[in-house]
Amino acid sequence: MHANDVTPETVRRLAGLRARNGKILSLYLDLDPHTHDTPRARSSAVSSLLSDARERVEGYTDADHQAKAGLREDLARLEDLLAPDALPGDGTHGLAVFVSGPDDLLEVLRLPRPVASQVVVDETPHVKPLTDFEEHGRWCVALVNRSLARFLVGPPDGLAEIGGFDDDTHGRHDQGGWSQARWERAVDEEAREHYQRVAAALALGVRRKRFDRLLLACPQDQRSSIEDVLPAEVRQRLAGHLTLDVSDVTPEEVRSAVRETMVEAAAHELEDRLARFTELRAQGALSAGGLDEVLAALVERRVETLLIHDTFSRPGLRDPDTGWLGIEGQRPPTEGRVERVEDITAYATGLAVEQSADVLTVTASEHHELEAEDGIAAILRFDR
């Protein structure tokens, strides 16, 4: 199993943090097992990252003496935290670390896929890379037969079994006559009660926002009986079916079986969102295109989905105290300190995550719907 500590709640919480007493160091460490398969290679990756961090800290000009001292102390903490013998083992292909001693912040997230090593010093955590690990959403795989139910929940790379139950329905027997018919009716009734219990558990998961999409693994002759009792809120999240041995299949076998289905579903969702944006844009409603419009919608917290080219990079303005974002020539609605940034992308992404918007990265070479919008667009929750 690939380790994955990234959840929508964690990313949203980090995106909403603001340093009040110091600065925040955000570090991403690549631990790709294909290129960092020995202790020496991992140690070299850590040394290189920490060296880069020292350079960033010493060269960071937007910090007073006290903030600079805090950053140096944070670097010392990181040297212990990232010692080769302290790095997590199997299943971790990268790390994201956010630290600020003066603000009592230290968070380490294990990542299920390699990530580009980088260091960022700012008033806010640098969460843009984390959105790539949530693009496929959170899934539930329900393994169900007439008596057993098992549930695996999580993103594609971190699907984990969270529980289940066995209602131990009676098996059929081969006795003929009326008593057999009565027995079979009793068994069928017990199975229906079991399916209803499964449906109730899945509905609770939807209400608690534990998953966005559902895959159902069950014997084919039981599929319709199970789906008939699913509430509408669960049925509308049903993304497909699997044929697996419900009782004996391992979590790793489940992850292997669903991986392709999940990736295909994510691709279809992106296409659907792009098509929806194109339609809304043609209607002149619930859409924003271009950096100026998108930043205004983000500041007004109207964004439902942020669509952004993987090659997008533009300068902009921001107020680090209020989170306001804009372009050259604009001013925030309230008097504040405005600073220029070379690339507004990370701040736009962070503001989108903070307001629970979906962030979808669009491969510019494969999708051309955003070309007329200069590589950035949004689907809106409401118009002004």
How would you characterize this protein structure?
The protein is an alpha+beta fold and 384 residues long. It folds into three domains: 8-131, Translation, Eukaryotic Peptide Chain Release Factor Subunit 1, Chain A, CATH 3.30.960; 139-259, Nucleotidyltransferase, domain 5 (2-Layer Sandwich); 284-380, Ribosomal protein L30/S12 (60s Ribosomal Protein L30, Chain: A). It is 37% helix and 22% strand. The strands form four sheets. Strands 7-6-5-8-9 form a five-stranded mixed sheet, with helices on both faces. A four-stranded antiparallel sheet has the order 3-2-1-4, covered by helices on one side. β12 and β13 form a beta hairpin. α1 crosses α10 (345-354) and α2 packs antiparallel against α3 (65-81). The chain starts with 7 loop residues before the first helix and ends with a strand. The model has no long low-confidence stretch (mean pLDDT 89).
